[in-house]
Amino acid sequence: MFHLTLFFMENNIRFCVGIDVDKSSFKASLNVSENNLVKVKASRTFNNGEQRFVALLDWLAKDIKNDELSVCLVMEATGVYHEHLAYFLYHQGKQVHIVLPTKAKRYLQSLGYRSKNDKIDAQGLAVMGLQQTLKVWKPCSTQIYTLRSLTRQLEALQNSRTSRTVFNNELEEVTYSAFSSEIVTKSLKSLIGSVEEQIKLAKEEIEKIIMDDPSFDLTNIKIFI
């Protein structure tokens, strides 16, 4: 699950939209703060997808009339559900902030939130957006995101050693059995070879990306070899 907050300021009136995003939808809560009094102005649930991202901006424009208002967006970096929305808003020229889940959780607890659901998360994060000053987020390069995907895949493949050990043991038993099966032998060899080949390809692609970009600082990049 993913959380997003939009923040607006005009004089002593401030608007903040807390958004809780999951795989299929996101809940938005528009809060307003005036003279240190905070209240929920509006809320709405949207389906996920770029058309609904546009609908979110249209919805906000109905309640926030001044086009000159600055806009900040605060997201909780959980999973990958936030990424499409974050990129969309960034490319719309919005100011984006992404915070760690532990930071958001501690803040919500400090507000007295003990239970957890989409509505509570959205409203609580709206308050967080009104009160916090956060670092501005900028997307990483395409190569960095490709490396992230490759290293995660390689880690998963490396962690499958237990399965490969089981397959190797089964292959040894079939090979030396008095009643071996050619079909089973071929299947086990294919499974073992497939994992090894995928590990080899992942390592080669990781090395290629790093070597093609001399700007990479290898000391700060975790590669699962």
Give the termini separation: 30 Å
Query: Which structural class do you get from the secondary structure elements?
Result: alpha+beta
* Biggest pleated-sheet summary: 6 strands, mixed
Write down the domain tally.
2
| Assembly category | single chain
What does the radius of gyration come to? 24 Å
How many helices? The count is 7
Global shape: elongated
How many beta-strand elements?
6
CATH class of the largest domain: Alpha Beta
Q: What is the strand and helix layout of this fold?
A:
Elements: E1 2-10, E2 13-21, E3 25-34, E4 37-47, H1 50-63, E5 70-76, H2 83-91, E6 95-99, H3 101-110, H4 118-131, H5 142-159, H6 161-176, H7 182-212
Parallel strand pairs: 5-6
Antiparallel strand pairs: 1-2, 1-5, 2-3, 3-4
Helix pairs in contact: 5-7, 6-7
What does this 3D model show about the protein?
- It is a single chain.
- The protein is α+β, with helices and mostly antiparallel strands.
- The protein has 2 domains: 2-131, Nucleotidyltransferase, domain 5, CATH 3.30.420; 142-220.
- It contains 7 helices and 6 strands, in the order ββββαβαβααααα.
- It has a 6-stranded mixed β-sheet.
- Helix 6 packs antiparallel against helix 7.
- The longest helix has 31 residues, at 182-212.
- It is elongated, with a radius of gyration of 24 Å.
- It starts with a strand and ends in a 13-residue tail after the last helix.
- Mean pLDDT is 78; it is low at 220-225.
